[in-house]
Structure prediction request, 306 residues.
Amino acid sequence: MSEFAIETRGLSRRFGRQLAVDALDLHVSRRAVYGFLGPNGAGKSTTIRMLLGLLRPSDGQALIQGLDVGRDRIGAARQVGALLEAHGFYGNLTGRENLDLARTLRGLDRHELDRVLDLTDLRSSADKRVSDYSLGMRQRLGLARALMGSPSVLILDEPTNGLDPDGIADMRRFLAELPDRTGATVFVSSHLLHEVEQIATHVGILHLGRLTVQGRLSDLLAGQPQDIELATSDDAQARTLALAAGYDVADDLRLRLAPHDDARRVAAEVNRALIEAGLDVHRLAPRPRTLEALYRQARLNLPEAA
Ligand SMILES: Nc1ncnc2c1ncn2[C@@H]1O[C@H](COP(=O)(O)OP(=O)(O)OP(=O)(O)O)[C@@H](O)[C@H]1O
Ligand SMILES: [Mg+2]
Prediction:
């Protein structure tokens, strides 16, 4: 069996003349929390719909737990719980009734209902009609449905949409703990880089349908060069000095370090040189490596920048 919970090989999808997903090779390890990132229109939802067998690829294949979605759609789908952008709940039914419908269709035990309602903190609103649900409640109900049957792969398309800050924190904790608690793999698309940074073990970044970055988050961040923010009493002279010392200096006077540079050592050296030259140093700050910097960098990895 494949070592990956989710794998795609050259997965592509055209809409007319537009190539919305372009030869995607996703590798999602078992028990990972995989953050699937990219700007609006990058192709995240299109990819997710192909992973679920809801949309036919133009080319390539998708495997869930080693099962080819194109050949064994039902078998692959049985491994997955999904939360999509459009939930498709019946507004005139209660949350509990909606879940019960999904439960019956899938032949799951009656106890599943209360289990997932508890997990998503929905017990108290389970008997309200879904049309009277708030956006966040609907999102929780979507998560509850995704969790029914304890799937080995959870695929979530922007699960924090509409959630309040407490709801976002709950979702974050829940997803982060799931692999250890149940052995499941979590694949989650999101725009909230700071949230993803806190829970993801792996990330993939999509730009214009192409995967520009993929890997273990800690490795990717460790490979990110650091910057040092600089402000002095004479920035023009500081720039000249920094350039003379061989540093790569950005327009706003940030020093762009190479991946192997030790930011603390460079900061100390630069500080000394500036003071010796008679400048006052107002600010000298190594900038922490963040997923946001990686995300911005990823845009530059496109073969021909758009
Ligand atoms: N059914 C469709 N018909 C035509 N074009 C489509 C269809 N679905 C998606 N697209 C196009 O494919 C591209 C990718 O869309 P997709 O919804 O996958 O992006 P996304 O990464 O999920 O964006 P967002 O972050 O806004 O949710 C977009 O240019 C979109 O207009
Ligand atoms: Mg989307």
User: Anything to note?
Assistant: The chain has two domains: 4-221, 225-288. The chain has a mean pLDDT of 92. The first strand starts at residue 4 and ends at 15.
